[in-house]
Amino acid sequence: MMGDSEAIVQSPLAIRGLTVSYAHRPVVHSVDFVTPPGSMTAIVGPNGAGKSTLLKAVLGITRRLTGEVRVFGQPVEAMSRHVAYVPQRSSVDWDFPATVIDVVTMGLFRDLRWWQPTRHRHRQRALESLSRVGMEAFADRQIGQLSGGQQQRVFLARALIQQAALTILDEPFAGVDAATEKAIVEVLKQLKREGRTLLCVHHDLATVRDYFDHVLLLNVRRIADGPVEEAFTAANLQATYGGRLSPMQLVRLMEPVAQGESRGE
Amino acid sequence: MSDFFMFSLVPLAVAVVIGMTCALLGNFLVLRRQSLIGDAISHVALPGIVASFILTGMLASGAMMLGAGVSALVTVVMIELIRRLGRVEVSAAMGVTFTSLFALGVLLLEWHDAAGVHLDVEHALYGNLESLIWFEGTGPYALFDPLALAELPPQLARVVLVGGLVVAFVAVFRRHLVLGSFDADFAASVRARPALVDLLLVSLVAVAAIAAFEAVGSIIVIAMFICPAAAARLMTDRLGAQIAWSQGFAVVASVLGYVLAGYGPGWLGFDASLSAAGMIATVAGLLLLATCLWGRRRHPAEA
Amino acid sequence: METWWLALTFRLGYNTSLVTLGTMLLGAGAGMIGSFILLRKRSLVSDAISHATLPGLALAFIVVGLIQGDGRWLPALLVGAAGSAAFGLWAVQRISERTRLGEDAAIGAVLSTFFAFGVVLITVIQAMPVSGQAGLTGYLVGATAGMVAAEAQLIALCALGVLLAVLVWRRSFLMVCFDAEFARTQGLHTGRVDLAMLALLMVVVVIGLKVTGLILIVALTIIPPVTARFWTDRPLHMVILAALLGILAGYLGVTLSSVTEGLPTGPLIVLSAFGLFFVSFLFSPRRGVLASLLAHQRFRRRVHLRQGLLAVARDEPIFDNLTLRILQRRGYLRRDGVPTAPGRAAARDAEHEERLWALYRECQPEDALQQEHSGLTPIASVLSPDAIMTLEAQLPPNGKQEARR
Q: How many domains would you assign to chain C?
């Protein structure tokens, strides 16, 4: 049982003592983290730091060894309706026989009983989601014909249609072009303005300051977390990446936002 | 004409129903890259049937179905255990499991052959579609005669029942199946229970394989699980259309195969008939070959 | 029992001894080539190959039967089998390379279609005036009982050839299995190496037809390598071990089948192999089920213990029931949840360990990554006393974690 403190009841995702192991090696070790409501949080860490595993364990895709996960103070198992998930784009077979709109309506899975056909209004909702990511023209396109960035937008649209309080994204910017990255960030910021919470595994340190307001630095353990200005420091980054960042890189990362923007182009 | 109703109608109907049933499930097996689970399960029906025969001492079809069902379940559990606990790659785990169980089946069978009881491996492998004779089927009017209909071979009712079950399963779980096949992680995140649906799918594969096994032998089952669905995959990019194509291919393969086996040698001037089950599976394979060469969507979609 | 002993000691006549030796060689060859195929993650290709032999067998039988009236002539049958197996293999390759279908669908389609066509040909044979038809079904489940010396010699020779070929090419095989991309950059023709592997696999399958039958030969190429994998992590050891296991399975199977008249050889060989597999699966100290389950339990308890002790050290409440139980059982926690004196001491130690590890990770990140530590192993077992002394000296008096935040 987790203490029902105020912060945990309000948080769309509170993790406590979460450990996940593969073959007797902890991939995620004893992580505590309370997602601030309405925040846009980046999970940052080197390769193999357990970022994706943390998300999968939270969602119940991977088994946890210890620890518990709460959504608004309730066990996540009962509250999964409030959580939307955008998996890594590379985790699925894009040659699957489905169209763009088929994939987006998959997000309505929980709203449709088996005897209910997919009706016009569901299609309408899917089209709305698609238009939010600028993909409405592609609704009937076979998913195998999409570019990487377009595939990512479709995945995002599938999460949008769930209208969840918390959206968890795994590397949404991996392998997408600059224009798509901008578009996706705009959608995410829009979601934030609507009061929704976003938790996002992110690999590009240069854009952390630009895109996010909170950060969780992770390398198997939690190294630090908090608002970007406080937690995204040279010392914490050094601890997370274990000295693999050069002093030059660190200095650049610590500079104000404008620098990050020019790198993002 | 009366010959047709007596000798051909039932085998043809059984072959078509089995073909369509297996092809329907096959669509999901092919999409999940699990085609070979059908292969594994059809092999292990043999030990199940032999074991039930040894235990009950007779060839009662109920007991045989049960035995085959149990052995299919044992197979699935064994594959999972070897894969998870032993950290063995899934195809190797499958290979270990089904060959061992099949070996056990053959051993038990030969033991009993020695004791003078009749049941042979060949029958199990290629079935005996031609033996499904409808003695009362003396003409078209028999179709409306309740007495004659009551004399239909029981295999027909059984495969129709299993076919209905499979159709119901796919209809009810269509979204689960699609979601789990496309994106299992997302399916888990919306609590679509991909692992459970996976198990259900495999169980139904087992049920279909067993029902078919008794009537037509296991080789046609494997072919029907894979060939029509694979051929359909090369024809279209829509799931609905793919399923429709696979059903069409299954019907064509069944009818054409049956006719070729029964009448083909006669056309060539020989007085013999060939294995109908084998011919049906061969035609299914040829259909796949044709789509591999000329299918509209034989290559993966390009961005 | 007595007959078995005679068979085991090769005193059951020249023919039986020859068959036993031939089967053992076959087991060795199948185990070796099977190991590479397993490492390449293509185990079930052998299933396609073996089923694809049937039409070739049947065709050869028909041709030979038309010529000499009896279709049973092993060399021709083997050539026919090899021919159609090669064709099946080619079809699998083409389908999985040229179309969007996966290798699983290609294997399944080829094995079922070829086998079905073979069945059709068998019904053709049944309608022909050829003798020796019953001999053909022997290829489905194997029969060594009626094997003549010349056949056993042929099988033994082929198996020996496979063994030698594997020995000669083992390095290229390993490189391709380990990392095909890298092998290509080293100037190796990975396609050709793959082809050589599959060709050898095909030879094993074809000569195994007579011994175990076409469905069960697959087992001999899969089970011994999988078994070997339980005992070693090194590929070459695995190949050797798989060969030995294949030899043992062949030896046990053939000799067991000579105990009573009418015991089928193929299934006994496969079941012997499975017996060896099962023992390894349960009891192997490395990857066996029992060892894994024990290790998992131990590991889980260690994680809970460490997390609990750290919570005690930081005066945080503990809610996890298992953690509480473990701490209580060790006497670190009273029933009402208050830490005991030894509990506090252990918690201080755990906290100290954790800080040492953290400091070590910070000071020597590269080394820390090299050590496959989980932070749960006592640091003293990983670092030298000197290194720990240095770390201790650097340790700030109060927790550094807080200082950083």
A: 2
- Please say whether the beta carbons of B287 and B253 come within 8 A: yes
B47 confidence band (pLDDT: 50, 70, 90): confident
Please tell me what DSSP assigns to residue A44: E
Q: List the one residue out of B45, B6, B60 whose CA is nearest residue B222.
A: B45
Order of all β-strands in the sheet with A14-22? A25-34, A14-22, A66-71, A74-75
Q: Which of C43, C45, C54, C119 to mutate to test the interface with B (most CBs of B within 10 A)?
A: C119
Same domain as C334, residue C311: yes
Which strands, in side-by-side order, build the sheet including A221-227?
A: A83-86, A166-170, A197-201, A40-44, A214-219, A221-227
Token pair, residue B173, equals 């779980």
pLDDT at A109: 92
Residue A64 in contact with residue A77, Cβ under 8 Å?
Answer: no
B112 CB burial (10 A radius; 0-12, 13-18, 19+) = middle
| Whole-number Cα distances in Å, B289 to B26, B65, B258, C340 | 17, 33, 19, 75
3-state secondary structure of B198: helix
Among A85, A102, A145, beta carbon nearest to B301? A145
Other C-beta atoms lying within 10 Å of the C-beta of residue C329: 10
CA distance B117 to C310: 70
CA atoms within 13 A on the CB side of B210: 28
Residue C283's nearest CA partner among C220, C223, C219, C230 is C230
- Quick one: closest CA in A to C377, which residue? A25
Give the helix ranges, DSSP H, for B86-145: 90-114, 121-126
pTM to 2 decimal places: 0.87
Which residue is it, tokens 């201080």?
A: C348
Q: Which residue among A16, A21, A235 sits closest to C404, beta carbon to beta carbon?
A: A235
- Give me the average pLDDT of each 10-residue run along chain A (265 residues): 70 91 81 93 90 93 89 90 93 92 93 86 94 92 91 95 94 90 93 94 90 92 91 87 76 62 40
Helix (H, G, I), strand (E, B) or coil at A33: strand
Unique residue bearing structure tokens 């906290």 = C351
B221 sits in which H/E element: helix B218-233
* Average of per-residue pLDDT across C159-186: 87
Choosing from C236, C253, C283, the residue where a domain stops is C283
Beta pairing class for A74-75 and A66-71? antiparallel
Place of tokens 């007595």: C2
Domains, chain B: 2-294 (1.10.3470.10)
- Report the C-alpha gap between C196 and C185 in whole angstroms: 19
Tell me if B129 sits within 8 A of B276, measured CB to CB: yes
Among B273-287, C46-60, C143-157, which is the least confidently predicted range? C143-157
Q: Judge residue C221's burial from the number of C-beta atoms within 10 Å of its C-beta, 0-12 exposed, 13-18 middle, 19 or more buried.
A: buried
CA distance B253 to B26: 15
Q: Are B227 and B285 in contact (CB under 8 A)?
A: yes
Query: Which range marks the domain in which residue C355 is found?
Result: 290-404
Partners of A96 on chain B (C-beta within 8 Å) are 31, 181-182
Phi, psi of C13 (to 5 degrees): 95, 160
Contact B286, C112 (CB under 8 A): no
Alpha carbon distance C253, C259 (integer Å): 10
Which residues make Cβ contacts (< 8 Å) with residue A60, sequence separation at least 6?
Answer: A76, A77, A80, B188, B189, B191
User: Same structural domain for residues C257 and C131?
Assistant: yes
Same domain, C372 and C309: yes
Flag if C365 and A26 touch (Cβ within 8 Å): no
Q: What whole-number distance in Å separates Cα of residue C211 and Cα of residue C213?
A: 6
Q: What is the pLDDT of residue B135?
A: 79
Using one digit for the tens of pLDDT, what is the confidence trace for B96-112? 999 999 999 888 887 77
